[in-house]
Amino acid sequence: MELIWEGLKKAFHMLITGDPEVFKITLLTLQVSGTATLISLAIGVPLGTLLALTQFPGRRFLMSVVNTSMGMPPVVVGLWVTIFLWRSGPLGWLKMLYTPYAIVVAQALIASPIIIGLTAAAIQQIDPKLRLQIKALGTTRIQYLWFLVKEARFSLLAAVIAGFGAVVSEVGASMMVGGNVKGQTRVLTTATVMEVSKGNFDVAIALSVILILLAYLVTLWLTLLQQKQRGV
Amino acid sequence: MNKSFSRVRNFLAASAAVLMLAGCGTAAPKAPETPAAQPAKPSNPDVILATTTSTQDSGLLDVLVPDFEKKTGYKIKTIAVGTGQALTMGEKGEADVLLTHAPSSEKKLVDNKDVTNYQLVMHNDFVIVGPSADPAKIKGKKTAAEALKAIADSQSIFVSRGDDSGTHKMEKSLWKQAKIEPKGAWYQESGSGMGQTLNVASEKGGYTLTDRATYLATKKNLKLDILVEGEKSLLNIYHVMQVNPEKFSKVNKDGAKAFVDYLINPDTQKKIGDFGKDKYGQSLFFPDAGKKEEDIGK
User: Can you give the residue ranges of the PBP domain (chain B) (predicted)?
Assistant: First the structure.
């Protein structure tokens, strides 16, 4: 009990004194996971829309693959990204292993299926009559898609929240491809694991509190955005 | 129409904000703070150091790495894994320089010319820790092998690293000395670093083999005492070595050499010897550069 109290005090102390090391780690966490979420959004929304609207042989199979990948274990992604990015690996010449970019790649791979799957579900949920109506208005193909995506925007924001939540809290892949390098690739989750193994439970608790606060604030911001749009 | 326009605008504005954030994300890591007074920047500044968890968990690298970076302008990427993985990274040319503590396994890399410039850096020692109640009565045993035999005979819990690290390799050789093949419910493998393994042993009221440095650094949260120590076979010897640039062209040869030179430099050796004295009242590591391996501990 005392340990928990110590940890909470430490977290409070780190937050109000603005511990530069913790600030750096928190900022990097936000940047890495934010970038990864955006990339997966750029990949996931078009692919999800395509998957929802087109008919082709093997579509159901593809859908099942996407749905499975929504729960892809991050360590699996971490392992494969590591193997590809090794100096001796096929993408070794990029020199990306143990940089923040590698973490972004791994996290984008984790979040993309989530965004694809949720986008496809959101688009498919739109009333078919509405689709017909939009078409009847004489829209171009681009306009038609834009309307659909806009119609599904609440669900899409939910997809963004789910994707960000998955990557910001992820530790296995970040540890493997980032290496927890101090000042370069140390993010909140990997720092927490390290402090636990050092036996510094108070610092670990403090970091975990900060991680939860960060996740909450970002989600709060996205939720407000979502609900504000609804309120208009 | 106006309404939906403003919705779109809102969404775009939000996305732009996130994008800007992302922009920082890709820019920031590129520009580490560069103090004005720095030596000439090496052309290839990034050096990957694969090492054991004990050097990170004890805090030693937090002292040495910044000092090295300030003196030379290189940037060290410390990848703290077990000695087993660190040596594998060396064998594959995935790291530039290794700091590990398993001389018998390291010998293979030296013989295969996977690594060069193999230098003795320091030592500390392994100790067997366990609950103060000492159910297996190992306290006072002269050798580690006898102690392990007593643990096995009494079926007391023993928590092993089980991760092929330097400590794990040492543990396996001690079991061999004791002529016991550890098996059964009492022998548990944590599969994690030294700090975490100590936590597990402490919670389960079990014994474990640990390096003294990690034990002292994490002691405050542990319900474990040192029960067996001081035997020569418990010495924990650290070597540093460059991954052979002739074998792996992508290795940062100059950076690796600079780090090896730094570690065996007399000033650094003094820093190593002093490390931890103020906090724990005793040295965590004993500097050995220039000595012969056989002479350590005499």
Answer: 40-265
CA distance A61 to chain B (A): 32
Q: Is this complex scored with an ipTM above 0.90?
A: no
**Domains identified in chain B, total number:** 2
- Show the CA angle centred on residue A105, arms to residues A164 and A46, nearest 5°: 65
Q: Flag whether residue A100 sits within 8 Å of chain B, measured between CB atoms.
A: yes
The CATH code of the domain at A1-223 is 1.10.3720.10
Q: Give the model's confidence band at B27: pLDDT under 50 very low, under 70 low, under 90 confident, else very high.
A: very low
How far apart, in whole angstroms, are the C-alpha atoms of residue B62 and residue B74? 15
A31 at the B interface (CB within 8 A)?
yes
Per-residue pLDDT reduced to its tens digit, B41-71: 788 999 999 999 889 888 999 999 999 999 9
Over residues B12-38, the mean pLDDT reads: 45
Minimum mean pLDDT range among A101-105, A130-134, B128-132, B149-153: A130-134
Domain identity same for B154 and B279:
no
Mean pLDDT of chain B: 87
Listed by start position, the domains of chain A span 1-223
Burial of B160 from C-beta contacts in 10 A (0-12 / 13-18 / 19+): buried
Per DSSP (E only), the strands in chain B are 46-51, 75-80, 97-100, 115-130, 158-160, 187-189, 208-211, 225-228, 235-243, 286-287
Contacts of A201 (CB under 8 A, 6+ apart): A3, A6, A7, A195, B221
Kindly state whether residue B141 falls inside one of the protein's structural domains.
Answer: yes
